[in-house]
Every structure is written in C-alpha cells, then in structure tokens.
Amino acid sequence: MDKKVRVRFAPSPTGFVHIGSLRTALYNYLFAEKMGGDFILRIEDTDRTRYVEGAIENLINSLHWAGIHYSEGVFIEDGKVVQKGDYGPYIQSERLDIYRKYVDQLIEEGKAYYCFCDKERLDRIREERQIKGLIPKYDGFCRNIPLDEAKKRVANGEPYVVRLKLPKDTDITFHDVVRGDITINTEDIDDQVLLKSDGFPTYHMAVVVDDHLMGITHIVRGEEWLPSTPKHVFLYEALGWEKPEYVHLPTVLNKDRKKLSKRQGDVSVEDFKDKGYLPEALNNYLALVGWSPEDNKEIFTMDELIKEFSFERVSKTGGIFDKDKLDWVNAQFLRNQDINVLREEASEELIKAGLITEDFAKNNKEYMEVLIDTLKDSISLMTELPEKAKFIFEELPLADETKEFLEGENAENAKVLANAIEEELSSVDEITLDYAKTFMKSIQKKTGIKGKNLYMPVRAMISFSVHGPEMDRILYLLGKEKIFKRLDKFK
Ligand code: GLU
Question: Residues of the chain whose pLDDT is less than 70?
C-alpha cells in the first residue's frame, strides 16, 4: 500500500503572508484533501534576524481567514500559540537539539566540516570570485582541517560554523513532478552552511531533518527553492534517508512578468482581506495562477478545486497575477453569496462609512436585502458598496452632465414631472416594492411624457445621476420623504 500522503506548509514568520505563499499553502491543502492525507503547519523560524513579534499569530489568522485548514502543527487556541500532533515540536527554534544531533553525525561521517573563516575572509573571497566572474562560493579553505584539530579549536571557544562537504565534480539528480529530472553538478553548488555560529541550523539543514522526521511525502513549495534542492537531496543521501517527492510551483508574477513585490502594492493576504475580497474568491483565483483545470471552468468551490486539482496540470512558467481577473472572480462569488451573509457584510460596510446605524441595519432587514440585491451587480467588492449606495442616504452634488441635462431643454419636463410625482406620492403612505413597480406607468399616464424623456429626468432629479439601478428599486430605497425633498428644487 502507498504511504499516507503528508504535506506541509513551512513559512518563516516574517510578519505577513504573501499571496504567493498563500497559493503554496492552498496547493498543499488541495493535494492533502484530495489524497486523504495530512497537512501540517510548521514554523521555520531559524533565521533570528528576520524574527517579527506576533508573526506566527498573524500567519495562522491569515490561513484561517482563507479557509485553508491543516490537521497538525501550530495552532492558536484561546489567543495562545499551541502545537498539536505526534511529530512535534513544530516550531523549528524548539528543535535545536535535534538538528545538532544530525549535524554531529554528518561531521563524524566526514559529510560536513567545521569552518572557522571569519567574515572578512569570506567577504574577500566573494569579491575575488566576483571580479573573476565566478559564482560566489566558499573556497573550501577549512574542508581539510583534521577533525581532531577542528574539535580542539571548537573546545577552545573559536567561533565556527558547520558546512556541508559536497563531493567534488559530482552530478546530483532528482525528479521534480512539475519540471521533470534535474541534474546539477556539485561544482555549481556551495558548501552550504548547515549550522550557524549562533547554534541555529540554516533553513537547509532544518528543512531536511524536519521533513524526514515528520514523515513528509511531498515537498510542495515555490520554485525559488529549486536551486537549494540538490543540497537537500545530498543531505537525504548523506543521512541515509528516503527522499520525498518534489513539486516546485511557478512564481506568482505581476503583469510585467516580475515577481509580485510589496513595493507594487497589495501582496499580503491581509491587504486583500482589508480591501474586502472574499476568501473563497481569492482561493479560487489563486488556484488558477499556475494551475489550469481540464476544461475552461473558472469558478470553483473549494470542494470542486479539491476534486479537480492535480500537480500534472501545474504550469512550468510563472503564473501571472491579474487583479482585474481577481475582481471579476470576486464579483461572481459576491453575487452568489447567501443573502444573510451578504446583508451582514453590506451592513458592516455601510455602518463603517457612516451611511446607516447599527440599529437601522438591525431593524430594516428586508430593506437591506433589497438594497444589496439592487446594487450587488455593480460592485466587485463589498467595500465598493458605500460609494454606490451613497446617493440613497445622502444628497449629492449633481455631476456636470446631469446638471446640464436638467437645466437645458429638459427643464420644463423636469418641472412637470416633479409636480406629478409629488401629487401621485401624496396619495400613498409609503412606497412598497409593488407600488414602485407601477409608479412610472402612472406618471406617464398623468403627464403624457414617456421613454427617455420620462425616465432620465426623474432619475437625475432623485438620484443625482442619469445612470443607475432600476427605477422601481430607487423609488423603494429612497422612500417618500427623501423623494419629496429632492424634487423640491425642481418644482
Ligand atoms: N521556510 C521556507 C519559506 O519561507 C519554506 C520553504 C520550503 O517549503 O521548503 O518559504
């Protein structure tokens, strides 16, 4: 029987989750769900210079918001970071003894060595190599220090790191599910530092040890890690461990085919959350950046993604992140959301914008539903709703074109219509939806004005624009009092 699939998302807690990382998490999740496997969240915090307070919480909250669930690793419970599972700890800074043990084993077996070169020397060789146009690489100065002597120097308190001892001029080959077989010669790879002078392992050492000890079967990560993979493969072999499968995902690029970076605006999951994107839409769109389904389908529920996702259809070239497309996907989800959810979200936005009060939202559920139903097709994001709904709650200045329209040859029509509307409305207590539907017909009958000459001026007078939602909806949403007030100046 095949081994149970175990995958992991292993971010460094840098303070925010890049949407490229979210996509990595998503693909791991989809694959784990599809295969009935385990999905683990591990925190890779061995680079202490990059440590950010609260970053773990932020990361977990972002995954939670996105609806990407894992079954093992690091969680938040009652506001505290907790770890669950049989393979812990899942935070690398709590596993230092484990790494040390394997580093020592590699040293004893001659597959790693102590290196005492100081920063000045390393800088100098880097510069020298650069001048000669060679790749920056350690020159192996400490490779052949006899182990006894090195140990004595360590015992004497000399600062050191431990480096991988790669064999000379040897091909390292591995298979990547997306890219096929990849071979790299050790002459092109550095004798990677495995243990730093602060006693922390580097990412390379920690990732291999943890992936092995945690029983990870598939490494699904961004292609920026592809150049590191031969070192990892060598480590698996050096430690006598079975290699996992590798799946390197194409980088998420912007429209200029450059890496999507923070300088260009929104790149973190939080940015998108704050802008009002729906997690389902963000996931759906991200799934399509670098993966394509068998047909041209574009809108997926998470369950559908799980069913259809496969690494075979992950592309080799970078996926373009197109914000307009994301907006479109978001709009599709928005339109199809459950009306109760929509109402809650819409109320929240309108309250935030100061257009309605909490009490109003609570006491006018049906009204709120009509409002959303009326405006949802004109927005891609719920955060755009206040702008579209503003004319309902506030008097707005007339746009130049609307002003011209009403003051020019339509002035007389406007006046006749304003008076007719007022007369007609005086006969009812309130504008119900049904009443609103027949209203314009009555005005037409009353005034003899029809078509564009009827609709455009009325629209302009009561909604401050010649464009907008259906007339009956506008009438219902505004209500009698507001309409009276707005018509006053045209009578
Ligand atoms: N800690 C690495 C990162 O921040 C994980 C890379 C990997 O998945 O191996 O992306």
Answer: 1
